[in-house]
């Protein structure tokens, strides 16, 4: 699926790399023009039976305020549904606005499970950077995140 926001094409792709995991990859600008379609696709995945939804934002070229607000709403919706929503970032265009607005700590960060062997678990393992402490384990109602 491709839409255009200015000069940058917007594209979403969805895959199921293993049982219980859905990965939604985003390419292009996430702004007020493209956020409605992004929201529709991700909400459908949150409403599915998969317990883990991974948003791969490494292809995002611009992250607008509307997109950040929607990510927060989608994260809350997933949490209330008993689902786990993880972000895969690592690009300045995504990390920088989240950090600048103080939103980075709100999210759970994970790795793209398509590159990890299936172990029978649906847990998405957050990557560790050298010199960082491992993330705390979730105990229920609390939220944890690795800040990059």
Automatic annotation (TrEMBL):
Kindly give the InterPro entries that the UniProt entry links to this protein.
Answer: STAS_dom, STAS_dom_sf
Q: Which PROSITE patterns match?
A: STAS
A family per Pfam? STAS
Q: Which SUPFAM superfamilies match?
A: SpoIIaa-like
Every STAS domain range: 20-125
Regions of biased composition (Low complexity) lie at: 134-148
- What Gene3D superfamilies has UniProt attached to this entry? STAS domain
Which residue stretches belong to region Disordered? 118-148
List the protein's name.
STAS domain-containing protein
């Amino acid at each position: 699926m491709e839409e255009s926001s200015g000069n940058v094409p917007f594209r979403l792709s969805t895959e199921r790399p293993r049982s219980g995991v859905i990965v939604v990859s985003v390419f292009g600008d996430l702004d007020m023009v493209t956020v409605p379609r992004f929201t529709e696709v991700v909400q459908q995945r949150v409403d599915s039976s998969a317990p883990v939804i991974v948003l791969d934002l490494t292809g995002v070229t611009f992250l607008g305020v509307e997109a950040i607000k929607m990510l927060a709403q989608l994260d809350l919706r997933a949490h209330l549904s008993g689902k786990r929503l993880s972000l895969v970032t690592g690009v300045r265009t995504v990390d920088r606005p989240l950090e600048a607005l103080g939103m980075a700590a709100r999210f759970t960060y994970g790795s793209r499970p398509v590159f990890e062997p299936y172990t029978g678990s649906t847990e998405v393992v957050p990557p560790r950077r050298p010199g960082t402490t491992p993330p705390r384990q979730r105990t229920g109602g609390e939220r944890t995140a690795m800040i990059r």
